[in-house]
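Weekly modeling sync, notes
Attendees: S.R. (lead), two postdocs, one rotation student

Agenda item 3: backlog of single-chain predictions. S.R. asked that every request posted to the team notebook include the full sequence so nobody has to chase files. The rotation student volunteered to paste the first one in as an example of the format we agreed on. Action items at the bottom.

Example entry:
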Amino acid sequence: MAQAWGLSPRGARRSVLIAAGLDADRWESPIHSFTEEERIELRAATSAAIRVYERLLNAI
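Predicted structure, as returned to the notebook:
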């Protein structure tokens, strides 16, 4: 997971941080620097974004 986080585009990391209610300026922070609670919020925000994109993809 750490490598995937680090290789993700800056905008994607910032968007997920914002959606999770975290500081977008932490986009350069390694994933292990987030607390377990923050990581749970990041997972939930990412899952929600995936569902939205899947709905859009299916609509197209």
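Discussion: group reviewed the output briefly. Residues 2-59 form one domain.
Action items: rotation student to repeat for the remaining queue; S.R. to check formatting next week.
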